[in-house]
């Protein structure tokens, strides 16, 4: 071996090696430079796939043809983490991508200048955007200068709202439930399902793979925000309200009425083992397994997809009523919603144009026409009667409140979701669960 | 993206070339030294790159993990044993510790025992290879796919409706109520461990079977002539001769059990008290508690090291016997 090697000209090898390493060093060094501000190209990341992605492409098509700007669209479900890494490492960021949900991240990215104000992106169109969009998505309550849950920091907006959904709606099969929508939660619980030929009052499905428990968390969120008010609700998200406090405990106890063996189809094991997408299926069986399913606006596509033979039509075959009052009329205007937003990470002419376009009624009308969502603008036209009414619910909301778990530290969120599964399985464990959640809360917020 | 590919290709070519250059240039220098010096220096010279790689990619991260486990989450201050105290006192982590112990005992003992029994029994039948294929079949299935298959098997529907899960359908045919296997805390850990055993028994069987074939038939014949029945032969001859193999397979299974992650993550994600150490470590990382995750990693590492040492000793003994 040594002789063979020795016969090779070592100097030639060393030279070529050196050259190669130099090339390698140059090529790695080059990639970290930022791309120049483009007026013809814009890179966009989104977490959407399937029908949602198709709708977004439909929205982008007229923009591309009228401006000549090329949109480089990438579906990236890990976008927040990758952008966080990009900001830390100083590498390329997409021009336009969803803003972060974690309040700590929102503030930190704003202070680092990583996300640019919507005021800058929209220019003189900003005031029109603010006037047209649901106030709950653009205005901090009580005129505060900060509301990180909707991307407002220091009086400036950092998230452009494009779509929204309403949660906490009670869906029913119109052929089964023919009564009046209950005014209060107690009225709802007082409905006798057998009067309408159904086995139980509610259906529920809390299984969702690694995220199991979130549908249950939506239910308790909608209870707490109407029962104890938005201040308690927001404090709770921020870790300032203990789980063992009377307000949150009352929320859990009320939630347990919805999933009690007497009220939920198939008992707790069924609620815990059923995937959220299939939860509503028993409503459409004969005889009906249950009367109501509490879920967000997006659930309608699951009904239609699970019963292709019934050819279910929104508004004629199934409908919803808004979450009934918890008996505290001052909090009836609290509505649970979530939104899709875009933030601008590179201030380029093309990125500004795209942001300006997505804030227009024309763009959002395309989103809405493709179905399955509400726009962020108040005055869009909905052909689907369900979404028309959901838009009314969103429009009449005094506060559009975010989903609690999504804005808690992630270990708190996981423990919160799992606690709901545990108390559903064994209601007598409630006190132990709440005590445990206080422990997690103390640890989670201390390090976040 | 294009740049990344170029960088990757250059790295793949440049690193071996740089090593080659190191050897060529170094050898030329060494050859000019005196014979005694050459003999002394050459082994160190050749071992240095390997030692260097191991240091950079294994020893350094290991030491760093140990260091981080004693520091706060931002790596700015020493916090002593706080992360370890958390691990050994917090109810969630204690549950995961208990479950890992369950995995260790039941997953290891049952998979090795079944592997041994199946290997011995199949050794005596004519359709051995066919049966072996059937039992080995789950081994190449990825743990995620196996978990999803078994999620269907364990599926639960309300009592009185058609059961889509195979197990509950079976219970139903005997007139029994369906069981929510993955929700019920008396069955869920057992169900998960069972999936683990299903995926690994074939592996244990194949290794033990190979070792079984190496036992000389003359020994067994002699025992039979001496009047030993088959049970005595297995007990007094086959098992002792297989013991080194069983130890190696057993320790490998213990390491597997301690590292268990995918089945639990896919099937329950730790809900209903099914977390194990590895899922616990993952969720600490996921929740940005890096120093706590490091502490969990160190505990896991310390639990596995003695087993690795046993395994390496066994291998050495086997080498010496040859």
Walk me through this protein's architecture.
Chain A is α/β, with parallel strands linked by helices. Chain A folds into 2 domains: 41-166 and 340-396, D-Maltodextrin-Binding Protein, domain 2 (3-Layer(aba) Sandwich); 169-334 and 404-447, Periplasmic binding protein-like II (D-Maltodextrin-Binding Protein, domain 2). Helix content of chain A is 45%, strand content 13%. Chain A has 19 helices and 13 strands. In chain A, the strands form 4 sheets. In chain A, strands 3, 6, 11, 12 and 13 form a 5-stranded mixed β-sheet that branches. A 4-stranded mixed β-sheet of chain A has the order 8-9-7-10. In chain A, strand 1 (41-46), helix 3 (50-67) and strand 2 (70-75) form a beta-alpha-beta unit. In chain A, helix 3 (50-67) packs antiparallel against helix 16 and helix 18 packs antiparallel against helix 19 (430-447). Chain A is globular and about 65 Å long. Chain B is an all-alpha fold and 322 residues long. Chain B has 2 domains: 2-69; 87-321, Orthogonal Bundle (MetI-like fold), CATH 1.10.3720.10. Chain B has helices at residues 2-31, 35-69, 82-89, 91-122, 128-136, 143-153, 166-173, 188-213, 217-225, 230-259, 262-267, 277-286, 290-321. In chain B, helix 1 (2-31) packs antiparallel against helix 2, helix 2 (35-69) packs across helix 13 and helix 12 runs antiparallel to helix 13 (290-321). At the A-B interface, helix 1, helix 2, helix 13, helix 18 and helix 19 of A face helix 1 and helix 12 of B.
């Amino acid at each position: 071996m040594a002789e063979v090697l020795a016969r090779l000209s070592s100097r030639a090898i060393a030279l070529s090696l050196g050259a190669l390493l130099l090339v390698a060093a140059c090529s790695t060094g080059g990639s970290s430079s930022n791309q120049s501000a483009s007026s013809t190209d814009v890179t966009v990341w989104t977490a959407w796939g399937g029908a949602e992605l198709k709708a977004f492409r439909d929205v982008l098509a007229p923009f591309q043809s009228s401006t000549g700007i090329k949109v480089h669209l990438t579906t990236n479900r890990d976008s927040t983490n990758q952008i966080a890494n990009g900001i830390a490492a100083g590498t390329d960021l997409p021009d336009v991508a969803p803003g972060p949900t974690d309040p700590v991240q929102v503030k930190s990215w704003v202070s680092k200048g990583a996300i640019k104000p919507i005021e800058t992106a929209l220019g003189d169109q900003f005031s029109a955007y603010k006037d047209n969009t649901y106030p709950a998505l653009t205005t901090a309550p009580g005129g505060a200068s900060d509301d990180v849950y909707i991307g407002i920091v220091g009086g400036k907006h950092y998230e452009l709202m494009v779509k929204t959904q309403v949660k906490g709606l009670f869906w029913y099969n119109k052929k089964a439930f023919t009564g009046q929508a209950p005014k209060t939660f107690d009225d709802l619980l007082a409905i006798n399902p057998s009067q309408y030929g159904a086995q139980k009052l509610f259906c529920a499905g809390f299984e969702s793979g690694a995220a199991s428990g979130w549908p249950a968390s939506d239910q308790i969120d909608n209870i707490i925000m109407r029962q104890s008010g938005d201040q308690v609700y927001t404090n709770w998200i921020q870790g300032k309200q203990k789980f063992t406090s009377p307000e949150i405990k009352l929320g859990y106890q009320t939630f347990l009425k919805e999933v009690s063996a007497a009220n939920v189809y198939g008992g707790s094991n069924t609620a815990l083992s059923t995937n959220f997408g299939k939860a509503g299926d028993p409503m459409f069986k004969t005889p009906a397994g249950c009367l109501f399913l509490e879920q967000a606006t997006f659930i309608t596509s699951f009904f239609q997809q699970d019963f292709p033979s019934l050819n279910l039509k929104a508004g004629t075959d199934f409908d919803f009523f808004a979450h009934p009052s918890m008996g505290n009329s001052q909090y009836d205007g609290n509505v649970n919603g979530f939104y899709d937003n875009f933030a601008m990470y590179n201030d380029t002419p093309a990125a500004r144009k795209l942001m300006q376009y997505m804030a227009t009624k024309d763009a959002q009308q395309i989103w809405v026409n493709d179905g399955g969502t509400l726009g962020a603008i108040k005055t869009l036209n909905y052909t689907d009667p369900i979404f028309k009414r959901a838009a009314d619910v969103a429009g009449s909301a005094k506060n559009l409140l975010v989903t609690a778990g999504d804005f808690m530290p992630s270990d708190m969120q996981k423990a919160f979701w799992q606690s709901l599964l545990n108390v559903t399985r064994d209601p007598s464990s409630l006190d132990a669960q709440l005590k445990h959640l206080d422990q997690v809360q103390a640890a989670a917020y201390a390090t976040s | 993206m294009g740049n990344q590919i170029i960088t990757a290709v250059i790295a793949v070519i440049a690193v071996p070339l740089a090593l080659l250059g190191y050897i060529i240039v170094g050898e030329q220098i060494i050859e000019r030294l005196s014979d005694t010096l050459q003999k002394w220096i050459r082994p160190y010279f050749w071992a240095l790159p390997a030692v260097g790689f191991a240091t950079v990619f294994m020893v350094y991260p290991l030491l760093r993990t140990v260091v981080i486990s004693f520091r706060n989450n931002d790596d700015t201050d020493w916090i002593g044993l706080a992360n370890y105290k958390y691990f050994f006192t917090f109810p969630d982590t204690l549950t995961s510790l208990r479950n890992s112990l369950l995995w260790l005992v039941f997953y290891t003992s049952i998979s090795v025992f079944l592997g041994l029994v199946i290997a011995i029994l199949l050794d005596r039948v004519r359709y051995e290879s066919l049966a072996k294929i059937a039992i080995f079949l789950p081994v190449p299935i990825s743990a995620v796919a196996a978990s999803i298959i078994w999620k269907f098997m364990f599926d639960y529907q309300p009592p009185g409706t058609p059961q889509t899960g195979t197990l509950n359908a079976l219970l139903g045919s005997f007139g029994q109520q369906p069981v929510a296997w993955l929700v019920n805390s008396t069955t869920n850990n057992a169900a998960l461990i069972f999936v683990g055993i299903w995926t690994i028994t074939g592996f244990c069987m194949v290794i033990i079977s190979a070792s079984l074939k190496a036992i000389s038939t003359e020994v067994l014949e002699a025992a039979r002539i001496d009047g030993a029945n088959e049970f005595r032969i297995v007990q007094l001859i086959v098992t002792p001769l297989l013991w080194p193999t069983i130890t190696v397979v057993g320790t490998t299974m213990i390491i597997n059990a301690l590292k268990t992650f995918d089945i639990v993550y896919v099937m329950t994600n730790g809900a209903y008290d099914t977390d194990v150490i590895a899922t616990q470590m993952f969720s600490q990382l996921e929740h940005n508690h890096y120093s706590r995750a490091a502490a969990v990693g160190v505990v896991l590492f310390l639990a596995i090291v003695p087993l690795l040492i046993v395994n390496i000793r066994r291998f050495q003994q086997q080498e010496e016997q040859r």
